[in-house]
Amino acid sequence: MRLNFQEQLDELTDRLASMCHLAEQAIEAATDALTQADLPTAEKVFDLNEQIEALRGPCEEQAMALLALQAPVARDLRQVVTGVHLVTDLSRMGGLAQHVAESVRRRHAAHVAAEDTQPLLARMGRTAGELARLAEQVLRTHDPRTPDMVQELMFGHRWGLVL
């Protein structure tokens, strides 16, 4: 019974990591489309968000089934509950990337944002994409140092905005 649980938990983790990868791609594409007024790149975001949303339902169902049928405790419980929260966050990241792509589509061939804001928007997009990449890394490697890397990234981003 416990082996089956671990296999199901590994499958959920793999799906979540795939969602992270897709979110990173969507954010990067949306950022590129925004800063370059690139309509074909903006169109890719819609496909990526569809893929993210296609994984959302199965991830949520699998997490709820694990909670209901396997009654995980301690570390396993934290991992499943974190997965439930992560699904929502990743879906939101994809949705926000799609909103950016919609803005690019509406304003094409003009730029959505003023030229002087583009470097800041590009940096914000890179930071968001890096957060998705680090989340994927945590899921795939279980490296305890990765959360520290996230903190460093966010600290550097915040100070970069101030200075």
Describe it.
With 163 residues, the protein is an all-alpha fold. The chain has a single domain, classed as Methane Monooxygenase Hydroxylase, Chain G, domain 1. The protein is built from five helices and no strands. It is globular.
Features:
163 residues; mainly alpha; Methane Monooxygenase Hydroxylase, Chain G, domain 1; 5 helices; 87% helix; 0% strand; globular
What is the topological layout?
Blueprint (H helix, E strand, L loop, with lengths): L1 H35 L2 H32 L3 H34 L10 H24 L4 H17 L1
Helix pairs in contact: 1-2, 1-3, 1-4, 2-3, 4-5
In brief:
87% of the residues lie in helices and 0% in strands.
Structural Rg: 18 Å
Q: Provide the number of structural domains.
A: 1
Mean of the pLDDT scores?
90
General form: globular
* Number of discrete helical segments: 5
Low-confidence stretches: none
Largest sheet properties: none
What do we call the CATH topology? Methane Monooxygenase Hydroxylase, Chain G, domain 1
Helix/strand order, N-terminal first: HHHHH
- Helical content stands at over 70%
Query: What's the total count of β strands?
Result: 0
Helix vs. strand class: mainly alpha
CATH superfamily: Phosphate transport system protein phou homolog 2, domain 2
CATH class bucket: Mainly Alpha
CATH architecture: Up-down Bundle
Strand content: under 5%
End-to-end separation in angstroms reads 55 Å
